[in-house]
Amino acid sequence: MRREYIIFIILLGILLSAGCAENGVEEPETAVTPAENPIVPAEVPQAPAEIVENPENNTSNQTAVENLTVPETEIVENPENNTSNQTAAENLTVPEIEIVENPKNNTSNQTAAENLTVPEAEHKTVEVKIEDFAFNPDSVTISPGDTVRWTNLDLFTHTVTGPDFSSGTLRDGDSYEFTFTREGTYRYYCSIHASMEGVVTVEGVKP
Asked: Domain Blue (type 1) copper spans what residues (predicted)?
């Protein structure tokens, strides 16, 4: 505004001078000194300098920060670009992924699954010695499907007699075995020597 005002005054002075020259009367030009109407450059906002806290200058620094005005940036929307971007987004198509099954692989996988066998749990055999008119050990614990083998190492004849099994007469060196398939506690004895007793405990689930 000041600049336009100065230009207007200068033009007015020129016109007045020209009019006086035509009339033969010289009028003194109105001199416009830069001091009377200084041209003030447009104020350019500057980024705030880093503020170092100083107990003595805290008040002045805080006042300077509060008085600093940051110009707002005006965002101008372009309706043409918005329309074109929206149209491009609507026209964007995502290709579908087609899953193709391979019959060869399916057959081989199915065959492999059919041929897969789960190994059965191995059954064990527990040895019990008959010696010195006793069963050694006189108590054993096994799982369903395990076997107990009794071997007579005495010079005398013995038997292994239980609720569901009986060895009959066992001479020196003879053996008898029995496979237990059900859980439970099985007590047995020697029918010839009643003081000889033993027990078999079956625990767990049959595989």
From this structure: 125-203
| Within-domain flag for 67 | no
141 has which bridge partners? 201
Q: What are the C-alpha distances in Å from 40 to residues 1, 118, 158?
A: 10, 96, 130
Q: 188 forms bridges with which residues in the sheet? A: 198
Size (the chain), residues: 207
- Interval 130-149: pLDDT, tens: 999 999 999 999 999 999 99
CATH of the domain at 153: 2.60.40.420
Q: Give the total number of structural domains in the chain.
A: 2
Separation CA 44–CA 71 (nearest Å) = 10
Q: CB burial class (10 A; 0-12, 13-18, 19+) of residue 160?
A: buried
Assess if residue 194 is contained within a domain: yes
**Higher pLDDT residue, 104 or 143?**
143
Position 33 scores a pLDDT of: 46
Quote the pLDDT of residue 21: 55
Q: Which domain holds residue 174?
A: 125-202
pLDDT at 43: 57
